[in-house]
Amino acid sequence: MLGVLVSSSLAESPSSRSRGRSTLFIALAVQVAVLLASVFVMVKEDVAVDPPAFSGERVVTVERPEVKRMDRLRELNRRMAKPRSFQRLAVEDPFLSELPPVPVLPQDAMDFRSVEDAFLTDAQSSLADSGLVSLAKSLGGRESAAEFFGVKDSGRRIVIVVNTSASVVRKAAARGVSIERLQDEAARLVEGLESGTLFGVVQFSQGTKQFSEYLAPALVKNKRQAGEWIRGELRGNPKVEDEELVGHEAALARAMAMQPDLVFLVTDGSLNRRTAKSGGGYSYPKISFEELMRFADERVLETGANPRLHVVGFELGDAERAGLKRLAARFGGTLREM
What we know:
This protein is of the alpha/beta class. Helices cover 48% and strands 14% of the residues. It has helices at residues 2-10, 14-48, 65-80, 112-130, 132-138, 166-174, 179-191, 220-233, 247-257, 289-303, 318-330, and strands at 144-148, 151-155, 157-163, 198-204, 208-210, 216-217, 262-267, 275-276, 282-283, 308-313, 335-337. The radius of gyration is 59 Å and the shape is elongated. The termini are far apart.
């Protein structure tokens, strides 16, 4: 059977073979055309398709800290606009019962000044008995004789205190003593001191100033400078440096701070203390001699000084005379009234 088929195929004519080849070529051409068409369609579809697009809002809102703070502040103000109300408390009677009345004490039992004066007197006596005063005096150097407006004494640590207020200068001039005479008396006392003696000069009215902060030895140079200072500066009203300490109290404080054993004081006995007014300006009320002496006693206790005090007074009234005499006697001195 196989041989019959082979022999029959071999027996086909050449025209049949040419038709077969033509059909093959046509089939191939159709396939190529279809392939080209499909490629064209694919490329065309790819080109025609639009790329994907993504869309959204581009504005992003972020709340700033300042805005948040303002919001909190507005909320706080809103809450504080209507504060809570509390019921007020009232006390009808602070105590369950009334306190007993304060007993009335006799006035003579309230006199503390006598107790204070007695205490100061005892303290001065104890200080003198202890030997500290004599020891302090021994450190002063050589003792010198001194004379001031006819008052004679001697000492190792000598201080001259001069009131140069307008009232003193006027009263002294009425007695024939000019400011130049006051200066000459002070300069003459200093010039006559021995070289081993210490000295100081204090000027005062309401304010104070002094030749030297500490006692100066009576050397030739120091005495010459002191004489120049006395004749050039010992006049007028010194500037007030401490409103709490003025007048005679300030002068005695400066003198006692130098721990003298002999003091000469020139004044008219008018104990005026400058006091500032609430509305501006100053008033000059008087203080008592008892107050001045208590102040001097306190300075004695603070500094350890216990000098003899001689007072030279100009045109003294009865009260001033009695007060200055008591002050001088308290410190073992005398009053010379001009």
